[in-house]
Amino acid sequence: MSNIDTIRQKAGFIIDMDGVVYHGNQLLPGTIEFLAWLQVEKKKFLFLTNSSQSTPRELKQKMARLGVSVAEDHFYTSALATAAFLDSQLPGGSAFVIGDAGLTNALYDVGFALNDVNPDYVVVGESSGYDYAKLTHAVRLVLKGARLIATNPDLTGPTDKGLVPATGALIAPIELCTGSKAYYIGKPNPLIMRRALKVLGCQREEAVIIGDRMDTDIIAGIESEIETVLVLSGVTTQKDLCKYAYRPHHVLPGAGAIVGS
To answer: What per-residue confidence (pLDDT) applies to 2?
Structure first.
């Protein structure tokens, strides 16, 4: 069986978004054919993103604007995984949040309260509203005993205008000022991968993860014992592969190559 055939035989597909299906506001070549194939073959599939900014509904709407119709339940974010983790640790707890709608909505939905006085947690995700006042307040709350949580460890994120600071960079000053090390929920934490498999309704042996980053997508798959497909349509290039001590199971030019497009 060829590499492509091995991938095609999988029952469940965990798919990163930016760099795999689109760049910013442009679909990547082969995306439409790949998604059509998933639906025709009745494959289980889940878009798994480390970004915590958008809700599944917003991601569905973005895909619709790009010309692809995908149901809301096919999206899972680091914000949802963070909310599920906090709910399992301290049901009905409270948090001071630096983040956008995707994160605050996810926390509301599990019954967490927003609290800027004496929260159980300080939770940080990507946010266009990040400023010195919020940073200072977060530092004081952590020093008073709030536990520090990050939606993901990414230092940068892609936009149409170039790279911007992501959660890992935004939370670093809080860690440095407090001496507290945040707990990071998103990829490559196996926790988010197990959540994704539950949502997908798949065993890890039946699944494959498709991503463009060696340091999040591919290592997440390896550490969770899920077969990995690196696509070269995003961050990682062929030349970058020699920098890592681990290897993806498959390397393809893009997701469309799975269906020959």
So the answer is: 58
What is the tens place of the pLDDT at every residue in 102-152?
999 999 999 999 999 999 999 999 998 999 999 999 999 999 999 999 999
CATH for 3-50+188-259 is 3.40.50.1000
Residue 122 CA to residue 141 CA, distance in Å, equals 7
Catalytic one of 5, 18, 100, 109: 18
Q: Please classify residue 8 by burial: count the beta carbons closer than 10 Å to its beta carbon, then call 0-12 exposed, 13-18 middle and 19+ buried.
A: middle
Counting Cβ atoms within 10 Å, is residue 181 exposed (0-12), middle (13-18) or buried (19+)?
A: exposed
Superfamily of domain 79-184: HAD superfamily/HAD-like (3.40.50.1000)
Give the active site residue among 5, 16, 87, 217: 16
Clarify whether 87 is annotated catalytic. no
Asked about 18 being catalytic, the answer comes back as yes
Cis peptide before 165 (omega within 30 of 0): no
